[in-house]
Amino acid sequence: MAVIKSVGVKDLKNNLSEYLREVRRGTRVLVTDRNTVVAELREPAAGALEDASRPGWADWIDASLLVPPSRAKTMLPRSPVALPSGTARGILDELRRESRS
């Protein structure tokens, strides 16, 4: 279980190097602003640098809360429905006029 510390923004700013050394040792640091947690400092998860668009997913997979896909995404075939340009806008405008009535 990781050690978790809480630090205010001002203290973090004044002692940033010290807190970063603690993070390297595995400590998670919760950054607070007026007693509200606004950020978290921790070591990057394994593979997080490879897929930064999905932070936290590795933790969910480890906890069996998420099952990763078994194969890569494939493109879906183009829809056979083809409507003239502006159809959606026309429908929305009509619905808005009806809701005002």
CATH fold node name of the domain at 4-49 and 56-62 = YefM-like fold
CATH class of the domain at 4-49 and 56-62: Alpha Beta
What is the CATH superfamily of the domain at 4-49 and 56-62? YefM-like domain
Second rung of CATH, namely the architecture of the domain at 4-49 and 56-62: 3-Layer(aba) Sandwich
Largest β-sheet summary: 3 strands, mixed
Q: Strand order, biggest sheet?
A: 1-2-3
Number of strands: 3
Structural class estimated from helices and strands: alpha+beta
Q: Give the uncertain stretches in residue-range form.
A: none
Helix content: 25-40%
Kindly report how far apart the N and C termini lie.
60 Å
> Which whole number gives the mean pLDDT?
85
Global geometry: elongated
Structural Rg:
24 Å
How much β-strand is present in the residues? 15-25%
Summarize the helix and strand pattern as letters: EHHEEHH
Q: How many H/I helical runs?
A: 4
Could you characterize what this model shows?
This protein has 101 residues and is of the alpha+beta class. The chain has a domain of 53 residues: YefM-like domain (YefM-like fold, 3-Layer(aba) Sandwich), CATH 3.40.1620. The chain is 35% helix and 17% strand. It has 4 helices and 3 strands, in the order E-H-H-E-E-H-H. The protein has a 3-stranded mixed sheet. The radius of gyration is 24 Å and the shape is elongated. 0% of the residues are buried. The mean pLDDT is 85.
